[in-house]
Amino acid sequence: MKKLSLLLAALLILSSTVVSAEWETFKSADGMYEYTKDGVITAYYGDEFAFFPAEIDGTKINEIGVMACFDLGLEAISVAEGIELINTNAFEGCNTESAYIPSSVKNIGERAFANCTNLNEVTLNSEEITFDFDVFVGTGFIQFYIPCTADEHVMYEKISDAKGDGNFSFSLMHTALVESMTEKDIFGENMIYCEDCGFKGSKYLEDTSLPFTDVSPDAWYYSYVQTAYSFGIINGKNKREFDPNAEDIHMFVEQELTSRLGDVGKKLHTARSRNDQVALDLRLYLKDEIAALQSLVLAVISSLHAQASAHKDTIMPGYTHLQRAQPITFGQQLLAYAMMLERDYGRLADAGRRMDASPIGCCALAGTTYPTDRVFEAQKLGFSAICEN
Asked: Are 64 and 333 in contact (CB under 8 A)?
């Protein structure tokens, strides 16, 4: 009996040792991460622009662990290519406004981004990604950037299940852009192509589908027609040409609405002025463009972090006043540019917040006597506030 008790005690000690060894965590040399030998990040201690590398001090990272960043005051999240799993509650309750998810991430665990109330932009680089329950529950409107080859219907089903509502939209990202060495756009610059989805056009213009079918997408001149249409040089056959006799664009739009809808079209300017409409259009446009720029900035920051990690031991001279001053690493030099871009990201975020207020209802100068609900209008237009004065 005594021998049996000793044997059981020994087994208990052995199992405890194995468990503790399995869950032993290490602190990264830069002090920013805690991680396990199995490649799981268990805690983050860096700044609000959180980058999660695929390698820490020689250990390959494949997972952001359960509750690793729970309720942290993060502003942006960028995950490096190579990480495969974002686990349960990993970022729940964070203040982050954006998240960059690489194509290597195969699964996002339950409630990973739940209650991230400021989250408004998520870049997904793979359509194969899967979501567990309630990944985005408790969030507001989110703009998702997805690959141009993704099936939007499939992605809609996945995300609506993970979010619990339909309060989101998609923007497509061209994933394999190359530059033509032979074809030129109307600016005299090389055309660009996406080898994955077949898009072709000018690097200065968004992908614009033509509203008529008598120009084949395979025609050599398609991209030129597309560019001209984008600029309004030509009009689709189902489009109305601008009336040169109209006083301005505002009167033209009102006349067009009235011709189609009758007298109700004349209510276009009820409780809103031309100033309102111009300011509104500019703000709506800038909100979208700022979000797109932030996504690109995060992608560059992610690449800089990855290269910095790979060159953390590459020695080079640091310069000041055009002279060699101190020995530094190439990784440190790359991170200097990453920090510059992080500040730019912050400036864009600040500009975005300034644009996120609806001017509708300010009218020509000092509001309107009509009993309008400006807050309701702002919410319907996707703004979080109204211009107070």
From this structure: no
